[in-house]
Amino acid sequence: MSVGPPRKLYDAYVFDLDGTVLLGDRLLPTAAETLAGLRAVGRRTLFLTNNPTRTPAQYASHLSALGLPTAADDVVTSALVLIDYLKRTQPGARLMVIGEPALVSLLEEAGFALVDDPARTDVLVASFDRSFNYAKLQAGFDAVRAGARFLATNGDRYRPTPQGGQPDAAAVIAAIEASSGRPCEQIVGKPSALTSRYLLDRLAVTPSCCLLVGDRLETDVAMAAAAGMSGALVLTGATSRAEAAASPISSTYVLERLSEILPAA
Ligand SMILES: [Mg+2]
Predict the structure, then answer these.
(1) What distance in angstroms lies between residue 205's CA and the mean position of ligand 1's atoms?
(2) What is the C-alpha radius of gyration for the chain, rounded to an integer number of angstroms?
(3) How far is the CA of 145 from the centre of ligand 1 (A)?
(4) What is the mean pLDDT of the segment spanning 23-38?
């Protein structure tokens, strides 16, 4: 069973967004003062989301407008992890993307050619796409059956919203897997080690000096534990205290609200 809240400061803090800092288009209680408190004592802070339907610059202006001043460099999405992974493993790949405009624009800016011809596709990228339809499924199906690699930005089943949720990339991945018979080769977002390695490189800290704060045990907390980082589960999103107590995934800390990560003076 986990303990909490922490009694010390870490060198660096990574915050999940949906359910941790944001719910829908609102800041969760204490988010702004917690970030301000950590920055005031010189701690490095980074936001991390699996959701690539906004660019880092768009997330930064959204958070800033809500009262949490943020620079684009403070935001990491699964799109950045994907770009890093593709540059290292398959530079010059021609990509077919089932995803939203923010993801498409970042991949183009990174220099990748986007194609819609399955026969010319080196890599199919499956993602959260609120305009997913049969024509896109057909194209993705044809691409993987023609031999394209099959990657995904994230594997989340749904995005929590004030109304309940929105079906996320897991639904797109499942449709292609079910029809083609080909499993997705790599999901780059949380809880993948590709994401934790990318974060730790960006922060330039050793894992034990970093606290990852999130609302999901199976992504946020599991990835932190696997990477040797401390993990704090905050009960403002997808996980209840009863679910946390019953789960085999144990977090370093369990918090009712974000401000508990600031040690009491
Ligand atoms: Mg979350």
Answers:
(1) 23
(2) 18
(3) 33
(4) 94
Q: Tell me how far the alpha carbon of residue 53 lies from the centroid of ligand 1, in angstroms.
A: 15
Cis omega before residue 263 (within 30°)? no
pLDDT tens, residue by residue, 73-83: 999 999 999 99
Give the pLDDT of residue 245.
Answer: 94
Residues pairing with 113 in the sheet = 94
> Do the domains spanning 12-50+190-261 and 79-187 agree at the CATH topology level?
yes
What does the DSSP assignment read for 128-187? --TT--HHHHHHHHHHHHTT-EEEES---SEEEETTEEEE-HHHHHHHHHHHH-PPPSEE
Please, which pLDDT band fits residue 94 given cuts at 50, 70 and 90? very high
> Given pLDDT bands bounded at 50, 70 and 90, which one contains residue 60?
very high
- Residues 79-187: name the CATH superfamily: HAD superfamily/HAD-like (3.40.50.1000)
* Domain segments of the chain as ranges: 12-50+190-261, 79-187
Q: How far, in Å, CA of 224 to CA of 211, rounded? A: 8
Q: How far apart are the CA of 77 and the centre of ligand 1, in A?
A: 12
Percentage of the chain with pLDDT > 70? 98
- Centre of ligand 1 to C-alpha 20, Å, is 6
Task: Work out the pLDDT band at 265, boundaries 50, 70, 90.
Answer: low
218 C-alpha vs ligand 1 centroid, how far in Å?
A: 10
Ligand 1 centroid from CA 54, angstroms: 15
CATH classification for the domain delimited by 12-50+190-261, as one of 3.90.1150.10, 3.40.50.720, 3.10.300.10, 3.40.50.1000? 3.40.50.1000
> Ligand 1 mean position to 214 CA, how many Å?
6
Q: What is the rounded CA–CA span in Å between residue 50 and residue 229?
A: 18
Query: Looking at the predicted structure, is the pLDDT value of residue 249 above 60?
Result: yes
